[in-house]
Design a protein that fits this description.
This protein is α/β, with parallel strands linked by helices. Helix content is 38%, strand content 22%. Residues 147-153 and 455-460 have low confidence and may be disordered.
């Protein structure tokens, strides 16, 4: 069908808009059969995200981008085939007095869709835009889940599960590529830290961890599980045919403008492999002590500690309490050209310019202790040890601190005074702890009240706030407890006092407990009492 002048203008605007996201868009058009194929290729490779495509389509055409929640109640339309909807990227939504609202995933078939509804079904049309992967999921749930298993849109693997070639072919299906890309795009948009792909007997659940809480984000047909799992393994460089043993892998992906580092873990379960993907958005992290929630007083004291010439500074708390972010913020603060900084981590979460970073590899005997032993021979000024897990690592770290190095590390303890007890439990002598330890920072994370809806989690349920997706919270912030080691606390350590006695002395000398810092943030309107109350301060 020949282009009208209006369509030509739309294509000119599309080129302009899409070139904002990919500067070579116009040049690439010359080597592709059509625009739709180019757009699909760029989206599949993560050069332009689906959200960016839809935004560009909207600006070029003037069409409204439909809220995805608005199409959940769509009823099947018997006069339109699934093949037509899939090929043209369209979905009839609602019909009223001879007018049908139609969601489309791109503007390239508008005339054909309009012609079909006007001339064959005698209906006027009103177009809206929607992401292609979401549109396909609605087609799947509204039209195909009621159909027979033979429907060609429903990918069911019936081949040899041990055949790597067959699984690779399955993982390369265009629909699966789009679905997995959509999973990553949505996770990045929601600022999720983890993706959980969990097969059950009757359903497949894909959950995102957002601000520390798990939410079901997608529920594809269980028949797609083998294809989805194979696609994820292929991306992560895992053995695509191995399902009996746990596997770990990693990869970097470009999702729109976001560069994300993905750590993949699989374990076999009774219903298939449980897959967890840890997402590190390299573009979204700004390592700055001012941004993590430290009040001016604590930050001032802590910055004095991190500028000491030697000693050990520990950051403590349970898994997922933000310890790594704090340590990277510290390193970012003190990373100067006149200092040699070496880290040994498991894993290296963020690569930092100007710092020598070592990845622990237990398979070849490179653990924290052996790595640290060699690090001290590299003439470092500052050493970061990802975690002190045993007596040997603790002893080497203490020796490094006593011989003129500034050492940072983490421990799993309940509070700052508990770090002393933990080191004693490892078998470290009292006098070594008291002479090397400079300070301990304990921390937890609490969710921040959404700045737009200003609601609690309970009252926000079901709301339409786009910022927090109706959860009432957006992002997390740290609450802190800082114990600076002075002579009085050193005497307590040397005398063998327990953590309760040490805490009493520390508070007399100005340490404010975690709960008080949390309640201060409640007064400031940053978080809620329920968030602070929900944190375990007594046990990990």
């Amino acid at each position: 069908m020949p282009l009208t002048k209006n369509q030509n203008n739309i294509y000119i605007e599309l080129t302009k808009e899409l070139s904002k996201y990919f500067s070579q868009y116009e040049e690439k058009l010359e080597s592709f059969p059509n625009r739709k194929l180019l757009d699909s290729d760029l989206s599949a490779r993560g050069v332009i995200s689906e959200a960016e495509l839809i935004k560009a389509y909207s600006k070029a055409t003037g069409l409204t981008v439909l809220e995805e929640d608005d199409i959940q109640s769509t009823e099947p339309m018997a006069d339109i085939s699934v093949d037509f909807m899939t090929l043209k990227g369209c979905l009839p939504l609602r019909q009223d007095e001879g007018v049908v609202d139609i969601a489309i995933s791109d503007p390239y078939h508008i005339d054909e869709v309009k012609y079909t509804f006007n001339n064959m079904l005698h209906l006027k049309v009103k177009f809206f835009l929607i992401r292609r992967t979401y549109l396909e999921r609605v087609i799947q749930s509204v039209y195909l889940e009621q159909d027979t298993p033979e429907d060609d849109m429903d990918i069911t693997f019936t081949g040899d599960m041990d055949s790597e070639e067959a699984l690779r072919s399955l993982a390369s299906e265009a629909k699966i590529v789009r679905l997995v890309n959509d999973m990553f795009s949505r996770a990045v948009e929601m600022e999720a830290s983890d993706i959980h792909v969990e097969p059950d007997e009757k359903k497949l659940s894909i959950r995102f961890r957002v601000d520390g809480k798990l939410y079901e984000a997608m529920s594809p047909s269980l028949s797609l599980y083998a294809a989805i799992a194979s696609r994820i393994k292929l991306i992560g460089g895992l053995n695509i045919a191995e399902r009996r043993l746990p596997q770990d892998g990693r990869t970097d992906l470009q999702i729109g403008k976001s560069l994300i580092d993905i750590r993949i873990s699989t374990i076999p379960t009774m219903n298939g492999e449980s897959i967890v993907l840890r997402i590190l958005n390299k573009n979204a992290i700004i390592f700055d002590l001012k941004n993590i929630g430290m009040g001016d007083r604590i930050r001032g004291e802590f910055e004095k500690l991190i500028r000491l010439p030697y000693g050990i500074i520990l950051v403590v708390g349970p898994t997922g309490s933000g310890k790594s972010t704090t340590l990277y913020s510290v390193i970012s603060k003190i990373n100067t050209v006149d200092r040699k900084i070496i880290t040994i981590e498991d894993p290296v979460e963020y690569r930092t310019e100007g710092i020598q970073q070592i990845q622990v590899n237990s398979k070849i005997g490179l653990d924290f202790a052996s790595g640290l032993r060699h690090v001290v021979r590299q003439d470092p000024d500052i050493i970061l040890v990802g975690e002190i897990r045993d007596k040997e690592t603790a002893e080497i770290a203490i020796h490094a601190a006593l011989t003129g190095h500034l050492v940072f590390s983490t421990l799993h303890t309940n509070d700052a005074p508990g770090a002393v007890s933990r080191l004693l439990d490892m078998g470290i002598e009292n006098f070594l702890i008291s002479s090397s330890l400079s300070g301990v920072l304990s921390q937890r994370l609490v969710r921040k009240i959404c700045p737009d809806c200003k609601s609690t989690g309970k009252s926000a349920v079901g709301s339409k706030c786009k910022t927090c997706n109706g959860r009432g919270f957006k992002g997390r912030i740290g609450i802190f407890e800082l114990m600076t080691i002075n002579d009085e606390i050193r005497d307590c350590i040397n005398d063998g006092d327990d953590s309760a006695a040490i805490a009493k002395v520390a508070m007399k000398n100005g340490m404010r407990p975690l709960i008080e810092d949390g309640m201060e943030k409640v007064k400031e309107g940053v978080t809620t009492k329920a968030e602070v109350a929900g944190i375990s301060f007594d046990k990990l």
